[in-house]
């Protein structure tokens, strides 16, 4: 069986809140750390209503190795802290958090 590349996507409601400098810094640090652990691409974006982050990986094993690392836990904790400090309610505001097999990309 051929390994399939995957993406991890996280989407949260903004509910009229703004992205703070701390939120941005923690997300950029997380995505930079992911790149050091085999991530082949990442995106941090927003629209009027949502914050969106995604990463791309050569396969799910590479993603899961990162997700089980101590660096992941540290960076994830910093993201959660920064979002909570900005008034986000993580459990209620997250709309979507999933790993998906990439069918096509260019």
Description:
A hairpin with a 3-residue loop joins strand 2 and strand 3. It is built from four helices and four strands; from the N terminus they run βαββαααβ. The mean pLDDT is 95. Helix 1 packs antiparallel against helix 3. The longest helix is centred in the first third of the chain and has 16 residues.
Defining key terms:
single chain; 106 residues; alpha+beta; 4 helices; 30% strand
Indicate the topology.
Elements: E1 6-13, H1 21-36, E2 39-46, E3 50-57, H2 60-67, H3 70-85, H4 90-93, E4 94-101
Antiparallel strand pairs: 1-3, 1-4, 2-3
Brief sketch in words of this structure:
The protein is α+β, with helices and mostly antiparallel strands. The chain is built from four helices and four strands, in the order E-H-E-E-H-H-H-E.
């Amino acid at each position: 069986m051929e390994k399939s590349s995957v993406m991890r996507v996280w989407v949260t409601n903004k509910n009229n809140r703004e992205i703070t400098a701390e939120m941005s810094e923690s997300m950029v640090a997380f995505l930079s750390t992911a790149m050091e652990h085999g991530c082949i691409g990442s995106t941090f974006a927003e629209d009027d209503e949502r914050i969106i982050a995604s990463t791309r990986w050569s396969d799910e094993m590479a993603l899961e190795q990162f997700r089980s690392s101590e660096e992941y836990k540290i960076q994830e904790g910093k993201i959660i802290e920064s979002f909570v400090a900005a008034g986000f309610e993580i459990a209620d505001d997250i709309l979507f958090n999933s790993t998906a097999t990439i069918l096509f990309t260019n």
